[in-house]
Each structure stands twice: as structure tokens, then as C-alpha cells.
Amino acid sequence: MPYNRAHHRFAIFTAGATFCLLIAGALVTSNDAGLSVPDWPTSFGSLYKIPHMIGGVRFEHTHRMIAEFVGVLTVVLAIWTWRVDKRRWIKALAVGALGTVVAQGVLGGLTVLFYLPPLISSAHAALAQTFFCIAVAIAVFTGRRWVEEVPEVELDSRRPSLITLTLLSILVLYVQLILGAMFRHHGMSWWPHVVNAPVAALVLTWTAVRALAVYARIEAVRRPAILLLGLLITQLCLGFVAFLTRVAWGRDAVQPELPMVISTVAHVAVGALLLATAVVLAIQVWRHVPVAFAERVPEGGRRVVAA
Amino acid sequence: MNKKTWVSLLTLPCLGLGLLAGCSKKEEAQPAAAPEAAAPAAAAATPIDPATVASVTGTVKLDGAAPKAAKIDMSQDAACKGANSAETIVADGGNLANVFVYVKDGLGTRTFDVPTTAVTIDQQGCKYHPHVLGVMTGQNISIKNDDQTTHNIHPTPQSNREWNESQPPNATPIQKTFAREEIMLPVKCNQHPWMRMYINVVKSPFYSVTGPDGKYELKGLPPGTYTIAFVQEKLGEQTQQVTLAAKDSKTVDQSFKQQ
Ligand code: HEM
Ligand code: HEM
Fold this sequence. Notes:
The complex is a heterodimer.
Chain A lengths: L4 H26 L24 H30 L3 H26 L4 H24 L2 H5 L13 H23 L6 H25 L3 H30 L9 H31 L4 H4 L11
Helix pairs in contact in A: 1-2, 1-4, 1-9, 2-3, 3-4, 4-6, 4-9, 6-7, 6-9, 7-8, 8-9
Chain B lengths: L2 H36 L15 E10 L27 E2 L2 E2 L3 E6 L13 E6 L2 E3 L2 E5 L4 E5 L5 E5 L9 E3 L6 E3 L5 E7 L7 E7 L4 E3 L5 E7 L2 E9 L3 E9 L4 E3 L2 E4 L2
Parallel strand pairs in B: 1-18, 1-19, 5-8, 7-13
Antiparallel strand pairs in B: 1-15, 2-3, 4-14, 4-16, 5-6, 8-11, 9-10, 9-12, 12-13, 16-17
The complex binds protoporphyrin IX containing FE (HEM) (2 copies).
The site of one protoporphyrin IX containing FE has 30 residues of chain A, from helix 1, helix 2, helix 3, helix 4 and helix 6.
């Protein structure tokens, strides 16, 4: 199957637009503007008229418009992928992306209609990052490297295997995301998120260090591993600032204050990048560092070698 | 994937949307039903002999220096030109304003007529007037918008039904009632996130909100022993017992400690 440059670029563009959408959404939450437009799917009774963009409406309606735009991009991407890509699993993924974006839009609407219940708002926050990861994955799978290159492969005989570690990283990041979202949407205290942060940091560091120590030669693995470490440090710092501005200093704030808005939005955005990076790393590890065959089909009496 | 899968994947979200449309219609239908549920007190009120009624007056104080009011930044909406200090704690010369005072206990099974007149909430200068409101269960609240900007009114009750409506400039007032007793029910505007007020919904007419001088008055009480509660949005609740004989007029002062 030939590499399709326009298709790949479009996938990158969709992922980029989704990242902007995540920021727009986080701005809605941080500015407490989620209910400034009380109705859905209409906005102040109209499906297309742009309301006065003042106060909370600026954030909420901008978020809705970008979401519609990303929805259209996803439809185009799904149809395009379906027509040009020969790989069935990519077609499935593109259709899955479409289903996710629709479900995400419906969750966004539901949370408005039910006055932001913590569970629906948190589900909206978690599915948003899931969709972002899918968009990024499609961009990776349609890239020239992925399509044309014969992958460099190195067998993994260590335990736990690198792929296990990367999957574990994704898992702890999800837990961290859900705990953070539940706190952010007033459904839970802050401490589960803060307690799980060192756990997440440990698992991520282990994963990245293993990848860099053993497979640094493979560029496709090295790059996301380095990025993972860098983003992790950034995210821990941002989390600390978000905690100060939201919890320590922000308790009596009479309105959302700029330092709180900036730090929490940045924390959400870097959180999304971190999750997407972990997903990319998992994809690349899957491709380049498969588990040694003898290990994949375990025989009786096999001895597990510790990492 | 074949065509069938495609079709089913596409119809699922449509089904979801259809369902949603159904749900939102139900939501719209609810307010019409609410006033009915809200007016059970229309049954005969327990009579009170006007010749024996007593009254309680008093002043609510704040111990210690009042905190400096936080500044509000209204620059995000040019139509907002209100006083820009927050009303979390308003105390002038030690007199604490915006304290809700009501008879919390001692009225037994008495019921009371719900006033047919509405109480008013006015949105002016992107602030609520008053900041603390008392109203009886089932009594009409008329909410008007005097600003040249759109507000949304969003109460976040614990035991009443939640709602959220927007109100453009020059719109007719919104009429609402609350069916259940609830103290310090927060009301917010999500366009102007500093806008916040509290509605207190009670079953009796014996309530009052302290003014800038910290004073309140409860009139027309039948003789008896009562628990009077003083509630401040941030400083919480304090109570005092008072026994009233016929035609008594007693003074009950209360003070809050700065936290
Ligand atoms: C389709 C793609 C969409 C994506 C990727 C998306 C993403 C997001 C994100 C990342 C947040 C921030 C969550 C947080 O900071 O915790 C958010 C919040 C929000 N979104 Fe969306 N959104 C989408 C569509 C919609 C739609 C169609 C609506 C329709 C009304 C909507 C309404 C909201 C609301 C009201 C919030 C604030 C929730 C709260 O503060 O509790 N979203 N969105
Ligand atoms: C691996 C490290 C971390 C990750 C991946 C992470 C991720 C997240 C995410 C994704 C959210 C928002 C969820 C949403 O979209 O609604 C969030 C919220 C939050 N996180 Fe973290 N976090 C991490 C570490 C920390 C640390 C160390 C702290 C504090 C010491 C912290 C404090 C917070 C706070 C206070 C919020 C809520 C912000 C608000 O209420 O607006 N996080 N975190």
C-alpha cells in the first residue's frame, strides 16, 4: 500500500485541531462556564446563530463550535480512510474515531442538560483524551515511516516486558485522569489524585528508563520515551501549581482567577499529551520490540528472568 | 468491515440523539408541573390570634475586624458596571449584614398561608439584589434582568429541583417557586462567574435578613418557645432559644466570630 501524504497530513491536522479543542474544553471548565449556554443541541435556541460572545458564553460556545469543526474533520477522515487505506483495521479505527467523537458530543450535551453531574463531566473529560489518542494513533499509522519502512525489530526477553510496562503506563494514566477529572468536577476529594501521582510517576519512569536503557537504538522507541519523561516532569510541576492555585489559595476566590485558569488548563493539556505519548510509545514498542517468541507461547517449566 | 457494520455504526449515534431529544423534551415539560407540587400549603393555615402575637428584634455582630472585601474583575463584559467588591462577609462597624434569621424550631405542626405576592431578585450591575433572600415554600420569586447583557440563573439546590435558564436584556421576568425548605441555596450565573446569591426557602413567614446595620425583626409570632437560627453564607449557623409570652417584644442579639 502506498504512502498517501495528503491523507497523513489531514490526520495530523485532525489530531492538532483536537488538541486545540481539549484546551478550549478545559477553558470552559476552569472558567466555570459549562452552563452559560443552558440548552443543547441548540445554543440559545438556534442551531447556527452565533450568540454574543461575552462572559462564559465565549468559552462555552467557542468550545461547541470547535467541537463541531472537529466532528466534521472526523467524518472526512473516516470517509477518506475508508476509501484510500487498504488496511481493514485502520478503516475500523477511523470509524471508531467517528463513533467516539459523536459519543463525546452527546456526553457534552448531556452534561449541560443535567447541570454538570460529576460522572458525566468526568466521562466527557476522559473520552476527550481517548479521542485525542485515537486521532494521534491514526496520524502515526498513516505516516511514511509506518507505511513504507521495514521496522527494525529487537526481541524482548525481559520480564515484565516493555510492552507490559507501556500498557501499565496507559492504565495508570487513565486512573490518574479519572481521579483528576472527578476532583475537577467536584465529584471527589483531591487526595486520591495526588496519592496516585507518585504511582503514575514511578510506572512511567520505569517504562521510559527501560526503553531508553535497552532500546535507545530504535528511534521510534527512543523519541516517545524521552518525550514521556520530559512531559512527566512538566506535568508534576503543573500539578503542583494547579494544586496551589485551585486548592490552597483558590478556596475563597470570588471568581476564576487567571493563575488558576492557566495552570489548570495547562495541566489538563499536558495530561492529554502525556497519555497520547504513552499510547504512541506502546504502539512503537508493539511494532519494534515484540516479546520473544518462546515467551509468547509459554512452555511448561519456563524460567522467568527478572528485568 | 462490511456495509452492514457501517450502517449500524452510523445509526447508533442517531438513535442516541433521538433518545436525547426525547429526554430534553421531558425536561422542558417539568417546570409546568412544578408549581402544583409547590403549593401544598394552600390548605387552611393554623389560625394565630393577632391580639397575643409577640416579636423579636436584634442586631447581629461580627467579632473582630471585618476582612477586606475581595475585588471583583468585571472586565470580561463591558455591560457590567456594578460595585466591584464581593459580598461574602459584609460588616460595617461590627454590624453583620446578609445574615438570614428564622424560626428554626418551635412552631410544631402549624401551617401558614403562602403570600400571593412575589419576592423579587434583580440582576443589576452584574450582581444580584438582594444578595441573600428569604422566601416561603411555594411563594413566587420574580427574577428580572436590568442589565444590557444576558445572564443565566442557575440555582444549585440540595433538596429542590435544579434548573438553569438564561435571560436576555429586557426579557420578561422569570417566575419560579421552590417546593421544599432549604437554607442558603446558592444561585450562580455562569456568564459572570462572580455573581452569586443565596435563597432561603422556609415554611413559616417568621424570617428576616439583616440589613447593613445588622438589624433584623421577626413579627407576629404566637407565644411559645422557639429556636432562632442565624445563618451566614460563610460563617455558618448559630442558634438561640427564646421564650415569648403573649405580646412580648424581646431583643435577641447574636455575634459571629471571624474564622
Ligand atoms: C466532540 C468533541 C468534544 C471534545 C473532544 C470535548 C472536550 C472537552 C474537554 C477536554 C473538556 C474539559 C474537561 C475538563 O477540563 O475536565 C470539555 C468540557 C466541556 N465540554 Fe466538551 N468536548 C467536545 C464536545 C462538546 C460538545 C458538543 C458540547 C456541547 C454542549 C460540550 C460541552 C462541554 C461542557 C459543558 C464542558 C464543561 C464541563 C464542566 O465544566 O463540567 N463538549 N470538553
Ligand atoms: C503523572 C502525573 C499527573 C497526571 C498525569 C495528572 C493528570 C491530571 C488530569 C488529566 C487532570 C484533569 C482531568 C480533567 O480533564 O478533568 C488533573 C487535574 C488535577 N491535578 Fe493532576 N496529574 C498529575 C499529577 C498531579 C500532581 C502531582 C498534583 C498535585 C500535587 C496534581 C493536581 C491536580 C489538581 C489540583 C487537579 C484539578 C485541577 C482543577 O480542579 O481544575 N496532579 N490531573
